[in-house]
Amino acid sequence: MSLSKNQIAKLLQLIGTTKEDSMDCECCFDRLAEFAEAELEGRSLCEAMMAVRTHIESCPCCADEFKALLDGLRAIGNTDDC
Ligand SMILES: [Zn+2]
Question: Where in the chain are the domains?
Answer without folding.
Answer: 21-78
